[in-house]
């Protein structure tokens, strides 16, 4: 495990994206416990992408225009749906003012889908991780699992920190309707912009 891999992974994980945006939105609407659930779901969503890269499915996405387009447009539609939900305060992004105990299953499933419907993540694994595997590595798949595990661990920790920090200022936010309205529009715009960015993504 090299410092260059750890530093690069940290930069990639901490950079604002759909997972970070969703975790922050959940933290501000439902609190710290739900934000950790969102971080966990985003981390679980990496597993299928990691397996796809190992099985060569990511290479198919990279070479097949149809396969890439199907997954890409599925992701675009889902992000626009998230944008609409943020504006309407529905689903996993609805504000829970009393923080009543309730299942975080919907939060986790939504977080998984966000990563699952992002074809660029599969290609990222195909292009990123092999750079840190030596050409003479005796067990390249084992090494890839190890690197992927570190990537997932850092994803969970960084996202959870984002979420817990956002949840710590939650009480100051939800008591101000104007701030909440501004945040809803900001999150909706963020999901819409990420959807637009994905729509114009090339293989």
UniProtKB/TrEMBL annotation:
Q: Which UniProt keywords apply?
A: Cell membrane, Membrane, Transmembrane, Transmembrane helix
Gene Ontology cellular-component terms for this entry are: plasma membrane
Which InterPro entries does the annotation name?
LeuE-type
Give TM regions. 6-29, 36-60, 66-87, 107-129, 149-169
Does the record's keyword annotation contain Membrane? yes
- Asked if Transmembrane helix is a keyword of the record, the answer is yes
User: Can you provide one Gene Ontology molecular function annotated for this UniProt record?
Assistant: homoserine transmembrane transporter activity
Q: What is its main location?
A: membrane
Q: How does it sit in the membrane?
A: Multi-pass membrane protein
* Cellular location(s): Cell membrane
Q: Which family does it belong to?
A: Belongs to the Rht family.
UniProt protein name: Homoserine/homoserine lactone efflux protein
Species source reads Bradyrhizobium ivorense
């Amino acid at each position: 495990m090299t410092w260059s891999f750890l530093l690069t992974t940290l930069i990639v994980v901490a950079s604002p994206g759909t997972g970070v945006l969703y975790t922050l939105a959940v933290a501000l609407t439902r609190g710290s416990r739900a934000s950790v659930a969102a971080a966990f779901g985003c981390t679980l969503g990496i597993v299928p992408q990691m397996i796809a890269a190992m099985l060569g499915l990511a290479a198919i996405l990279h070479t097949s225009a149809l396969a890439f387009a199907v997954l890409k447009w599925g992701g675009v539609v889902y992000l626009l749906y998230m944008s609409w939900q943020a504006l309407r305060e529905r689903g996993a992004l609805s504000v829970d003012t009393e923080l009543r105990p309730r299942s975080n299953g919907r939060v986790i499933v939504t977080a998984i889908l966000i990563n699952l419907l992002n074809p660029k993540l599969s290609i990222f694994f195909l292009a990123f991780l092999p750079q840190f595997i030596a050409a003479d590595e005796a067990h390249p798949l084992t090494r890839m699992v190890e690197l992927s595990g570190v990537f997932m661990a850092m994803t969970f920790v960084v996202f959870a920190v984002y979420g817990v920090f956002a949840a710590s200022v939650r009480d100051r936010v939800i008591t101000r309707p104007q701030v909440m309205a501004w945040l809803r529009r900001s999150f909706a715009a963020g999901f819409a912009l990420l959807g637009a960015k994905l729509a114009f993504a090339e293989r």
